Amino acid sequence: MTTIALSLLSGFGFGAAAILARIGMQGMSPLPSTLVSVIVSFFPTVILALIFALSDFNDLPAVAFAWFFLLGIVNFLLGRTSSYQAIGRIGASRTAAIQGTAAVFASIFAISITGERPHFVVLLGTLTVVTGLTAALGPSIREGMTNHKVALIGYGMALVAAASYGGTNVIAKELTQEYGSPLMVSSFALFFGIIILSPITGLKTVREVRASRGNPRFAISAGLSGLAAATGVICLYYALQRADVTVVAPIVSTNPIVTLILAQIFISRMEDLTKWLFLGVGITVAGVIVVSLGSTL
């Protein structure tokens, strides 16, 4: 039950982060929003790591830092940057819907690279979750593709983010098992994420944050998206430390449902509730239950 609770909380964190990022991007561009979110994610994470996992920082081998750097590239340069670029082009709910396929990528990587052998029921639940997300948000995606052909770039970026997050799950699981606390692993990943992103968009970020001082709510929203994402990352890594990727990833991938619900509450002008949404939510919840049951077999 702890693994399921952590996975659901992770999904909530990622879902909330997408909405807050969408609000922030009304006044900031995607790349600076990404860097702000990563910086804000880093500070509470490293403070928690120094308090609760200081011993795990000792005696790390040099090769560990190479793996942390790789995790920073996959998770933040490829994953979060692509995700925020997609949100800026096609919106939070459509981006989240496509990123729900991260569960499929994660399962493929885990089975082919690390040799996980999930129970058939877990794979059936994963397929059910993806089917539910497709039913819930498919009409919205089709409408976006019909009305905005240039948004195809956004859908492509969302798919890159999904594949990156799928790969992140596999790398993070291996690192937490090899080197210790998920807090320590996520701290180093975020640190290298900042190092990687700063040369790309650091100056632009400083300019946009300074320009927003008269109306700081957009920069604040980008920062809050980082706090929500930090919650998602930490809970995800703890869940991966306790269970297989093929169990955790489908449950975390319910975050598009959280995104759409929060969108109705905070940015309802941008989204519509439809019968497909309710049908998709029902199917997705059923899929999570199936995955949860399969994890016990």
Protein model, in words:
- The chain has 297 residues and is mainly α.
- The longest helix is centred in the middle third of the chain and has 30 residues, at 182-211.
- The chain has one domain.
- The radius of gyration is 18 Å and the shape is globular.
- It is built from twelve helices and no strands.
What brief labels describe this structure?
0% strand; single chain; 297 residues; globular; mainly alpha
Question: How is the secondary structure organized here?
Answer:
Elements: H1 2-24, H2 30-52, H3 62-90, H4 92-99, H5 102-112, H6 120-147, H7 152-179, H8 182-211, H9 217-242, H10 245-252, H11 255-266, H12 275-294
Helix pairs in contact: 1-9, 1-10, 1-11, 2-3, 2-8, 2-9, 3-4, 3-7, 3-8, 4-6, 4-7, 4-11, 5-7, 5-10, 6-10, 6-12, 7-9, 8-9
Count the DSSP helices: 12
CA radius of gyration: 18 Å
Largest sheet: none
- The secondary-structure element order is HHHHHHHHHHHH
> In terms of quaternary structure, what is this?
single chain
Shape: globular
Counted up, domains total: 1
Would you tell me the overall average pLDDT? Answer: 84
Question: How many β strands by DSSP?
Answer: 0
Could you estimate the helical fraction of the residues in percent? Answer: over 70%
Binned strand content: under 5%
